Amino acid sequence: MTSPAPHRPRASVFQSFEEMSDPATVAPRIAALRVALRQLGLDGFVIPRSDQHQGEYVPPHDERLAWATGFTGSAGSAVVLQNKAALIVDGRYTLQSAIEANLPAGSVLGFDPWVHTPDQVKKLEAAVALAGSTLKAISLNPIDAIWRDRPAPPSAPVVSYPDKLAGETASAKIVRVREALARAKCGALVISDPHNMCWLLNMRGGDVPHTPLALCYGIVKAAGPVKLFIDPAKLGAAVIDDLIGVCQPFAPADFAAALDDLGRAGTTVRLDAATVASAIRDRIEAAGGKADVGTDPIALMKAAKNATELEGSRAAHRRDGAAVTRFLSWFATEAPKGKLTEIDAAVELERFRRDTNVLKEISFGSISGAGPHAALPHYRVTASSNRAIEPGIFLIDSGGQYEDGTTDITRTLAVQEVTPEMRRHYTLVLKGHVAISRAVFPKGTSGAQIDALARLPLWEAGLDFDHGTGHGVGAYLSVHEGPQRISKLGYTALEPGMILSNEPGYYREGHYGIRIENLIVVEPRQITGGDREMFGFETVTLCPYERALIVVALLTDAERHWIDTYHARVLAELGPLVGKDEHAWLKGACAPL
Question: Do 28 and 130 fall into the same domain?
């Protein structure tokens, strides 16, 4: 290939850097909400960030917490009372604690049962009872009645996901789900997680940012077509043709009657504890059914990718790795000039991904942090926070959505001079990252059991990081997929085909942050002389580490060998995919330590 022409950063297609809220609107909106609450006989109301599917990405139509409070983070809740309001965004201070501390005795606290799970309602009930008050479900969310300029519900078209990429037909998946329901002695499954519905029916959509999701519900029974409850405007003729014989589409307005039918038949209905709305459980039980709140069996099926999905992921990562490599080569030339900002870097990396001509979306808003901003694990750069990239550390966490796979990668980069402390901390993080990459473990091992491997080098230095080591990743679905994860709370056993991130970090608040992330796949491992079924990890992300931050003397021979072997593979697989000048940079970046 010939070297491409130099790029100029241009506007982003897939992410915005503008402020998402106006603080001046908060006071009048809270005042209007309090009036509405008084009219309903309520002393307060709970506002979670979630929508009716408990999704990570919420469509603008359902951003009630952001509308009322101005908070645009990815997790949080608020309690609005008549004389005070509490916004909870720190995991160390729970919603229940806020209720117990602030709710006057004898109050009536309202909640919308469509945006809380049964377990969440149980915790709310306990907190309200401790405060000597009453919890009351409200049929119409009071925010919806006063939100005058509320965006329309999302209506992106649904597209079929071809079997050649899915690796399994929808019909075959439905058979597996019915077998799981029979084993659980359940007569039906209500699918409340749209990710599971999209996987089951081999379809994708565009209703939420960065994830090809079609918001919908489904019902699977022991026989008959699967019922799909979705806005009919999303279904074109081609998609309807593909769904014939697999499912029967219904309008969302028909969902309540279908739940009543399940209840009247006395059906035992499996509901997903993580995503089902309390209102769904209540409706089934009120009609005479039995709600079996547990795990949607689709979650584990979806988590263990088949051979076709894994090959698609590998192809997506080669393509994405070449794009990131082109960015790193560009960054190595441009950053020392001192003219780049965090937004420049995020836009340029997106641009290199779009140059593949097959990028569908980014998989999340890029975390582009320089200096102290890199110490904020979930930092979102805006026009007002945009910082110049100066000598020191720069962290870029990003990913792409391709039709054959979802990517997520973090690299921490040195800009001109870095301190010995930065290099030491980077190398300790790298040692933990390599420990996960090299891990072998028996069948039945959970992510919680191997999480400590990533932390041990940091622990030995009196350091740690507060987030999990890794999350699950979907196949052209959500970049954050459960139930698999590598964390202290990762209790699901790891199985072959599961894709996870491997991303230990270290954050020195107010100064700099370090995170190194690859995606890995659980795979069988044959151990000579062993008598247990063993697993390990295949690394699918392809991109060099930052040599300028590696203290080779801190690495063991085994760690250095793994890194050198990985870099040789990166060079062999990405070298043919980049230009001449980029290949020269890549060759230097991948040279043996």
Answer: yes
Last residue of one domain, picked from the residues 83, 118, 146: 146
Tell me the two tokens of residue 290: 């039995």
CATH number for the domain including 164? 3.40.350.10
- Taking Cα atoms as reference points, which of 388, 328, 323, 370 lies closest to residue 351? 323
Same domain, 180 and 261: yes
- Domain span at residue 352? 307-586
Report if residue 593 sits inside a domain. Answer: no
For residue 54, CA distances in Å to 155, 203, 272, 306 come to: 19, 20, 11, 26
Strands 268-272 and 188-191, how do they pair? parallel
Q: Which of 585, 583, 547 is nearest to 566 (CA)?
A: 547
**pTM of the predicted structure, to 2 decimals:** 0.95
With contact defined as beta carbons under 8 Å apart, do 219 and 227 qualify? yes
Cis peptide before 483 (omega within 30 of 0): yes
Q: Residue 584: what residue type?
A: A
- Residue 341: Cβ within 10 Å count: 16
Pair 313, 329 in one domain? yes
The three-class DSSP label of residue 494 is coil
pLDDT tens by residue, 491-516:
999 999 999 999 999 999 999 999 99
Largest CA distance in the chain: 74
Domain boundary among 251, 267, 301: 301
Strands across the sheet containing 134-137: 85-88, 77-81, 44-48, 108-111, 134-137
Retrieve residue 534's tokens: 């063993």
548-581 pLDDT, tens digit each? 999 999 999 999 999 999 999 999 999 999 999 9
Alpha carbons within 13 A on the beta-carbon side of 215: 22
